[in-house]
Every structure is written in C-alpha cells, then in structure tokens.
Amino acid sequence: MEMMPGSDQSLSRAMANLTLLLPLLNSSANASDADCSEEEQPYKCQFHEDFKYILLPVSYSIVFVVGLCLNLLALYIFIFRIKTWNASTTYMFHLAVSDTLYVVSLPFLVYYYAMEDNWPFSVGLCKIVRFLFYTNLYCSILFLLCISGHRFMGVCLPLKSLEWGQVRYARWVSAIVWVVVIICQSPVLYFVTTSQRCEKITCHDTSAKELFGQFIIYSSVMLVLLFCIPFLLIIVCYCLMARKLLQPTRGTTRMSSSKKKSIKMIIIVLVVFIVCFLPFHVTRTLYYSFRNWDLSCPILNAINLAYKVTRPLASTNSCLDPILYFLAGQKFVKFACPQTAKDGNRSATESTPNGQLRAGNHLAMKAKSLVS
C-alpha cells in the first residue's frame, strides 16, 4: 500500500522537528543531573563520599546489635539483680541508660545511609536522632568523669569519699548531668533540619547553610565545656591516682586486687577517650574550621574522610562502656559472674596481711566518726 504524498511530507517534518528537539532535551537532562550531583555546600569542593554508604550502615548495625545486647544485659543486672547500689553503680546505671537510648536510634541512620542520604521520615525524627547522638556522647563523657572522680576520691581521699561518695550524692550528681547535657544539647533541635535535593531528602548533622556560622560557634562552646574540661580533669585525676597506686604498700610485696581494679579502670576509660571521643572531636573541629578556609580540595576531602570515619568510632563507646561495668563494678561482677567474683574475693582475702586489714578497719572507723 503506497503512502500519500501529503502524509509523507508530514512525516518528514515531524522527524525534522524531533531531531531539533533531541539536543534540547539532552541538554536539559544533563543540566538537571548536574544540579542533582552538586550538593549544596558552603565550600567550593565536591567530596567523594561513596565509601560512607557502606561504612556507616555496616558499623552502625554492628554497634546496634552489640551495644543493645550488652546494655540491656547491664540494665537487667542493675535493676533486678543488684539490690543495694553504691555511687559507682548509680553512675554506671545512668551511663547504660544513655547508651541504650542512643543505640535504639541507630536503625534509622542505618536505613538513611544505606539509601545514600535519603531520609524518608519526618523532620522531627531527624532532629531527635541527631539530638540522641550528641546527648549520648556528652552524657558518656560526664558520667565517665563522675566514675573517675569517685574512684579518685576512694584512692587519694579515702576519708572524703566516705562522705561525698554516698549514693544520695551520686543521684543528685546524675540528675545534674542529665539536666546540663539536655539543656546544652537542646539547640541541636533548632539547628538540625532536612533539605530536599532532586528526589532525595537530606537529614543534616549540622545545620542549614544560613545558620552554619552560628552552629560553629555553638559547637566550639560545647567542645570546650563538655569535652576539653572533663578530659583535662580526668587526666589530672588519673595522674594523681597512678602516682598513689604505684607507691609500694607497707608490709606486702604484691599489688592488691583493689589497686589492680583501679588500674584496669584507668586503662579502659583512657582507651574509650582515645579511641572514641578524641579522634571524633579533633576531626570534627578541623572539618568545621576548614569549611571557611581557602584550602585545596584534596586537603578538604582528606579531612572530610577522616571525620566520616571517626563518626562510627564515637558510637562504639556504647559497646565499650559495658566492659567498664565488668572490670570496675564489683557488685556488677558479683551478680553477672558469681564464681569469678567469689574466687577474686577469696584471693584478695588470702593475699591481704592482717596488719593491713587492721589499719584499713581503723581508718574506716575513724572516717565514720568524723562524718557522724
């Protein structure tokens, strides 16, 4: 069947018009893709962050599973097994509560980074998840400071520890820690927001572009108040404790079990700070500062890489804190591992000279008379 001349001419004109439209459509699509590929950043460089879509979901999933199991076990022992609490038990319980609240928020971040920075939930939930991260971070630091201060008083100021190391003071201090951290971190609920770019919604861990300058000032203040000062206090306490613990005890040649436990606690807390808290705060400070400096893109990309790597390290404190309960909490070990605690107490009793026991009893009686 032959085509009519008019229809042939119409088809030719349609093909010509389509040929003219194709370059325009391709240029429009390429421009749209370019807009979607350029992330809104207050600096000139575009970072290569594909690695975080594997690193963060995997690391957060591990922290969620391990941290949730260990902290739920710790909470069970604290609540149902330990009948009488001391100051250390009180601080450790609140530390476990803080860690548990944080790890239950991790599945949202696992999904977010697995979907390559696409937040399908509400803006309020984005704010809460980021708020829980920083609240847990600084609650952990302050409760570790409380545990370290309590142990410092027991080693270096035993008479004072009998008065200020009582449970009622520990409860007041724990309440103050929660109030201070919540007040200090409440601006996170204001700064953190979401933004839509193409078909994805980003849940920012900093702030919107127009508020970034204010966010840097706020973060710097929190760095000094909630990290630098507690870290320096812990270092001073541990230096004084180490000097006291390393002094030879009169009448014995072996280090007592209480001294060994104190040294273990010093090592664990320092490991938590060096592995979890210190790298995160250093790289975050550099990351925020370098955004306003005219540096080369390779340097900016390197510090961005370091910052993204240290974020999951900061989360691992939720898994390392329960180790502190086992090694530093005598009552916790007693109910978690009864046979181990019994053997440790027996060995400590057998290795303690009678003269040292009498001196310790005399010191305790004298302290009680002064307190009363």
What count of structural domains? Answer: 1
Radius of gyration: 29 Å
Q: What distance separates the N and C termini?
A: 116 Å
Largest sheet: 2 strands, antiparallel
State the secondary-structure class.
mainly alpha
What do we call the CATH homologous superfamily? Rhodopsin 7-helix transmembrane proteins
Tell me the β content: under 5%
| Strand arrangement in the largest pleated sheet | 1-2
Helix and strand element order: HHHHHHHEEHHHHHHH
The CATH level-2 architecture is identified as: Up-down Bundle
Low-pLDDT residue spans: 21-35, 37-42, 344-372
| CATH uppermost class | Mainly Alpha
User: What's the overall average pLDDT, rounded?
Assistant: 80
* Number of E strands: 2
Helix content: over 70%
In the CATH hierarchy, the third-tier topology is known as: Rhopdopsin 7-helix transmembrane proteins
Shape: globular
Count of helix runs: 14
Keywords: Cell membrane, G-protein coupled receptor, Membrane, Receptor, Signal, Transducer, Transmembrane, Transmembrane helix
GO molecular function: A1 adenosine receptor binding; G protein-coupled purinergic nucleotide receptor activity; G protein-coupled UTP receptor activity
InterPro entries: GPCR_Rhodpsn (IPR000276), GPCR_Rhodpsn_7TM (IPR017452), P2Y2_rcpt (IPR000356)
Subcellular location: Cell membrane
